[in-house]
Write a structure and sequence with these properties.
alpha+beta; three-stranded mixed sheet
């Protein structure tokens, strides 16, 4: 979503909440100058990419041992 700096200033709370779910691009004089992003988004995407990598029938200890053995 792209908004103007004035719109951002007038509705700061709204755009801070929206930034939790999507990137907000803020423009000034017709040029995008700022990108507002969720600080934790990279972590969330990394965790989601790992979902399902470890089979459900394996214990945490077994997974740790496999990782240490390099399997």
């Amino acid at each position: 979503m792209t908004i103007t700096a004035t719109e951002f200033k007038l509705n700061l709370g709204k755009y801070l909440a929206l930034a939790e779910t999507e990137d907000i691009f803020i423009s000034r004089n017709g040029r995008v100058t700022v990108k507002l992003v969720n600080n934790n988004q990279d972590r969330v995407e990394a965790m989601e990419s790992l979902f399902g990598c470890i089979p459900a029938d394996i214990t945490q200890e077994e997974a740790r041992e496999e990782r240490l053995r390099g399997i």
